Amino acid sequence: MSEIKYKRLLLKLSGETFCKPGEFGINGEYVERIAARIAALSKLGVEIAVVVGGGNFLRGEAFSEKSHIPRHTADYMGMLATVMNAAALQETLESIGQPTRVLSAIEVSAICEPFIRRRCLKHFEEGRVVILAGGTGNPFFSTDTCAALRAAELQADLLIKATKVDGVYTDDPMKNPDAKLLEEVSYTEVLQKGLKVMDPSAVSLCRDNNIPVVVLNIFQEGNITKVLKGERIGTVMG
User: Fold this and answer.
1) Which coarse location class applies to the principal site listed for this UniProt protein (predicted)?
2) Nearest-5° angle of CA 158, CA 162, CA 167?
3) Which of 16, 128, 135, 144 could form an S-S bond across to 198 if both were Cys, CB 3.0 to 4.6 Å?
4) How would you class 49 by CB atoms within 10 Å of its CB: exposed for 0-12, middle for 13-18, buried for 19 or more?
5) What residue numbers does the annotated binding site for ATP cover?
6) How far apart are CA 214 and CA 72, in angstroms?
7) Residues within the annotated binding site?
């Protein structure tokens, strides 16, 4: 068996991975599938921090544009949505025997610990999966930027952006059948071409801190394990 190449992983889950395509909210079956994959990775000895999005409930910027709610308030509402996803994922992980803690950048003391870097590292030592909720705790920043920031803070060996598609394409594959999957792309190319990988601030953070990024389909069984063992899956950004 190949050895694990990356020992500390920052896994970014979009809110859409918590529900069926085109739907909203949380679908128990989808959360269970994600939890099973995360628990399997933890059993391999990988230290795992998960940053969760909230788009299955609300996206701050889009919601603000369609309502009279200012962007900063809408963004805080989106942060609360990530807390709901984090709580669902934690309970599902623990139901299958995987110790887990939720650390939030915004205070929700009834169900989350505050995000403190040293506390997060201690949870790693104890074999716990850490779910990071609340984004950066600040409006106007996406959970992609949060993932890049936490990956840098926690000195993660790899950032995986887990999605429902196989990687980064030259165009939207759902709209353009001629769109091609990119196996590899540089940080600079993503920024210059405006590729829909991560927000520019997130890409810049990864570039400045030399954090490799892999974009892949989390619902393809074994994908993440293969990447952790050094296999080429999805799109590699670096």
Assistant:
1) cytoplasm
2) 95
3) 144
4) buried
5) 12-15, 55, 59, 163, 169, 172
6) 30
7) 12-15, 54-55, 59, 75, 136-143, 163, 169, 172
Name the token pair of 182. 């990119």
3-state secondary structure 12-70: EECHHHHCCCCCCCCCHHHHHHHHHHHHHHHHCCCEEEEEECCCCCCCHHHHHHCCCCC
Q: Which CATH number fits domain 8-237: 3.40.50.1100, 3.50.50.60, 3.40.50.10090, 3.40.1160.10?
A: 3.40.1160.10
Binding-site entries for UMP:
54, 75, 136-143
Q: Domain extents for the chain?
A: 8-237
pLDDT in tens, the chain (238 residues): 468 999 999 999 999 999 988 889 999 999 999 999 999 999 999 999 999 999 999 988 899 999 999 999 999 999 999 999 999 999 999 999 999 999 999 999 999 999 999 999 999 999 999 999 999 999 999 999 999 999 999 999 999 999 888 888 888 777 888 888 899 999 999 999 888 789 999 999 999 999 999 999 988 889 999 999 999 999 999 8
Kindly report the length of the chain. Answer: 238
What distance in Å separates the CA atoms of residue 76 and residue 60, rounded to the nearest whole number?
7
DSSP 171: S
| Rounded Cα gap, residues 140 and 123, in angstroms | 29
